[in-house]
Design goal:
single chain, 360 residues, alpha/beta, Mannose-Binding Protein A, Chain A, Rossmann fold, four-stranded antiparallel beta sheet, 7 helices, 26% helix, globular
C-alpha cells in the first residue's frame, strides 16, 4: 500500500518534469518559465542587434514585461563579463512621436525609464542600475535576445492592438530590395564592385531626396526606409522588420550590407529575395502603419527558373520594379511601375524613381 501511494505521489512530479521548459546553451529561463534570455556580448546597432537575434534562432531583442523580469534581465547583464554602459532591449519609438513599443509587438504595460530618457528612438538598459534610457539607434552596444522556451506553455493570442496613428498614407514605408548578384561576384570582379557601389549610392541619392522633401501634391509625409541586398553580401536584412526614419539611420542600414569577405556562395539570391518580399511584414503590423511600397531592383537579363515576384503579389500597397542596365523582368502586371535605370545611375534615373515614390 505504501509503495502504491509513493508511486502515485511521484507521477505528477515525473509528468511535470517531462513538461519542464528548457533553454539552450548560455540562455537562462525567465521567472515565468516561458522564455529564454541570452546576452550577446558583441556590440551592434539596434537594427543589427535585432537582425542578429532573429538569425540566432528566430528571437527578438528582449521584451521586459514586469519589474521581476527587469531584475532578472539586469542580473543577467551584471554577470555577463562585458564592459558596456548600456544593453539594447527591444524598445523602439518607430514613429518618433513618443509611442514606444516592444519590437515583437508585445504590449508595453510596464516601464522603467530613467528620468533623462529623452535623446533617441531606441531603448537600452543602463548597466549600473537596470533603468531604461532612450538612445541613438546607430550606437553600438551589447544586446539581450529572448524567445519562447522549448516545451513552455503558450499564451492565448493577444487581441488586435488599437493604435492611434496619423491618417493612413501620412506615413510612407519603403522597403528596397537591391541586386548584388546579377552583374558578377564583387569579391573577384572589379566591374561588379563598381556597379554595385553605384547602385548603393543610387539608393542613397533617392532616399536623400525623399527625406529632404517629405511633401508633394499638398500631402505631408513621414518616410520610413529599410534596405536589403540579395547576392554576394555578408548578410541581408530581409527580416529586419523595423525601418529608419531619418537619412542618418538609413545610412546605417545601408552600410551594414557589405561584401562577404571572399565567400562565393549566394546564400541569399534573387529567389530568396522574391520569397522574402512575398511574406515580408513591417513591425508593428503594416495593417495600420500607412502606405507601403516595395522597390525591387534587378540587373538580371535571364529570368529562366526564377519565380514570379507577383505570384503571389507581395503584401505591399505598391510595388515598383527598377530595371537596371537593360534588365527585363517578365510578367510585370499592368499598373506596376517599371523604371528603367542606366548603368550610370544619373540624375535622370534618380528623378524618375523619386517621382514614383513621392508622398502619397
Amino acid at each position: 500500500m505504501h509503495n502504491f501511494l509513493f508511486s502515485v505521489f511521484l507521477l505528477p512530479l515525473c509528468f511535470n518534469s517531462l513538461l519542464a521548459a528548457t533553454c539552450r546553451g548560455e540562455e537562462k529561463l525567465d521567472p515565468s518559465g516561458k522564455y529564454c534570455y541570452v546576452i550577446h556580448k558583441g556590440f551592434a546597432s539596434f537594427h543589427d542587434a535585432e537582425k542578429a537575434c532573429y538569425d540566432y534562432g528566430g528571437y527578438h531583442l528582449a521584451t521586459v514585461p514586469t519589474m521581476i523580469d527587469n531584475r532578472f534581465v539586469y542580473n543577467l547583464s551584471s554577470h555577463a563579463n562585458v564592459f558596456s554602459n548600456y544593453y539594447w532591449l527591444g524598445l523602439t519609438d518607430m514613429t518618433a512621436d513618443g509611442s514606444w513599443e516592444w519590437i515583437d509587438g508585445s504590449d508595453l504595460n510596464f516601464m522603467n525609464w530613467a528620468s533623462d530618457s529623452i535623446n533617441g528612438y531606441c531603448g537600452a538598459m543602463r548597466a549600473y542600475d537596470g533603468k531604461w534610457q532612450a538612445q541613438d539607434c546607430a550606437k553600438q552596444y551589447p544586446f539581450i535576445c529572448y524567445g519562447a522556451a522549448q516545451g513552455a506553455p503558450t499564451d492565448s493570442p493577444n487581441p488586435p492592438k488599437t493604435t492611434i496613428r496619423p491618417t493612413r498614407k501620412e506615413e510612407n514605408m519603403i522597403k528596397f530590395m537591391a541586386d548584388s548578384e546579377s552583374v558578377g561576384n564583387p569579391n573577384t570582379d572589379p566591374n561588379a564592385v563598381n556597379f554595385y557601389n553605384k547602385e548603393r549610392e543610387y539608393i542613397r541619392a533617392v532616399t536623400d531626396v525623399l527625406f529632404a522633401n517629405p511633401s508633394s501634391n499638398g500631402n505631408i509625409c513621414k518616410f520610413y526606409m529599410s534596405v536589403s541586398f540579395y547576392g554576394y553580401t555578408k548578410y541581408d536584412q530581409q527580416f529586419d522588420h523595423s525601418a529608419a526614419w531619418s537619412q542618418g539611420q538609413f545610412d546605417n542600414l545601408l552600410e551594414s550590407n557589405v561584401w562577404d569577405d571572399g565567400k562565393t556562395d549566394q546564400a541569399y539570391n534573387i529567389t530568396d529575395a522574391i520569397t522574402g518580399a512575398q511574406k515580408f511584414q513591417w513591425s508593428p503590423s503594416m495593417d495600420d502603419i500607412g502606405y507601403t511600397t516595395l522597390v525591387f531592383l534587378t540587373a538580371r537579363k535571364d529570368f529562366t527558373n526564377i519565380p514570379s515576384l507577383f505570384n503571389p503579389f507581395p503584401q505591399f500597397d505598391e510595388v515598383v520594379v527598377v530595371s537596371l542596365d537593360g534588365a527585363n523582368m517578365p510578367g510585370v502586371p499592368a499598373g506596376v511601375a517599371n523604371i528603367p535605370v542606366s548603368k550610370e545611375f544619373n540624375n535622370v534615373d534618380i528623378n524618375n524613381l523619386v517621382s514614383v515614390l513621392k508622398c502619397h
